[in-house]
Description:
By secondary structure, this protein is of the alpha/beta class. Helix content is 17%, strand content 31%. The strands form 6 sheets. Strands 13, 15, 17, 18, 20, 21, 23, 24, 26, 27, 29, 30, 33 and 36 form a 14-stranded parallel beta sheet that branches.
Amino acid sequence: MSLEVVILAAGKGKRMNSQLPKVLHKVANKPMLFHVIETAFQLSPSAIHIVVGHKSELIEEALKDLPSDISRIVQVSHQKELLGTGDAVASALPKINEESDVLVLYGDNPLTPFDDIQRLTALLEDNPLCVLSAYARDPFGYGRIVRNEDGFLKEIVEEKDASEEIRKIKEINSGIMVTTAKVLKKYLPMIKNDNNQGEYYLTDLAGILVKENKIVDVLQSSNFDLLTGVNSKPQLAFAERTYQSIQANKLLAQGVTLADPNRFDLRGSLKCGQDVFIDINCIFEGNVTLGNNVQIGAGCVIKNCTIDDDSIISPYTIMEDSTICKKNTIGPFARLRPGNVLNDEVHVGNFVEVKKSTLGVGTKSGHLSYLGDAVIGKNVNIGAGKITCNYDGANKFKTVIGDDVFVGSDSQLVAPVEIKNGVTIAAGTTVTKHTQMDENSLILTRAQSVKIDTYVRPTKQK
Ligand code: UD1
Ligand code: CA
């Protein structure tokens, strides 16, 4: 039997108080809807139907960013009017194969647990409908699982329609359910909208089947936190922290030392070798790989980088799309823009910006410099305030620096320019492509300093 997944994403998300459709709000910098789609994809369904409505064009645009293996099986269904979750599923039904099983997920459940939905779909063999429930510390806002005297599910009642008695029930409906296309086709039309919200509730399907003498199975999830439906910003923040604590705990279990797992953010994937230390308030984005004995100081933001063994990244360093080889020392306050390769034992110190540059083994740039579009050799020493003038206002040019070059402080290398091996550039020198040089020569621009005897230092006017 093939499985198709329907993900509801048509709602406005009024309680988010935002122009952005709710399911595009992000957890770990990824739209909530994408988290749900990726989890659903792990079940190997034959199709994933996304029901869109409110600002559907924004959602369809966002879906273009899905990886191609996933987008191949994604289909969009339009819900014309937002008449409720029952109507939303009905609008996807024409595209679903009549023989398929159907798993319904909500686009505002970013942490939807894979284990639970896998177990839930397995239950379908016995009964026509299975819903996923959980015990909530505070069930407010959720549909409640109402059971009969024998403990079987009787109906699901929404918060807004619940009596005081029913509101006391702590077992909530996650919204996640599995059934068949045949059941949906037969029973969805029986759902009415005679409730306090005037909506066609998908959840009414449970009560309707029970009245037809069918048994509706309830699978209890052990983790309510993962079933948080995000309707508001506080719930979004809760989902984010819950997600991050799962990431942090996985890394701790692998042996990574996190100074504080509550002050750690991973927005992508992070692979770590042994004895990695990560101080507080770091953000890792995209794909980051850290080798053995790598230390990351407080407040670093690291995106799509590989950092090899024994490298130390000091606090408040920002780096992106760069490869850092072994035994580097970077920062504090360094900025690596995309496209750098830093070979072994490179040092990049505070307030140094590096872009699209290669630094050879043992090269050092300790402070306050800009290295852009540069190929720099081995054991080069770069003084403070050295600038590669790589841009003439229209085009970018390359700077090539040989091995063992010494670049004095406050010097400008006007690209395109090549500095030969062993050259010493004196402080305050401007080098252009016209500058004559041999290997190991000294290059120097020195304007004469003069003494002015008539100078009087200004005093503050009264
Ligand atoms: C829903 C459930 C509730 C459950 C809770 C779990 C119903 C009637 N209630 O309530 O039992 O405890 O989720 O989080 O299903 N949507 C559409 N079209 C619509 C209305 C909603 O696609 O016409 C989508 C929304 O975008 C959202 C999902 O369905 O992704 C759930 O809708 P929402 O309004 O958030 O339902 P809840 O009130 O949270
Ligand atoms: Ca919701």
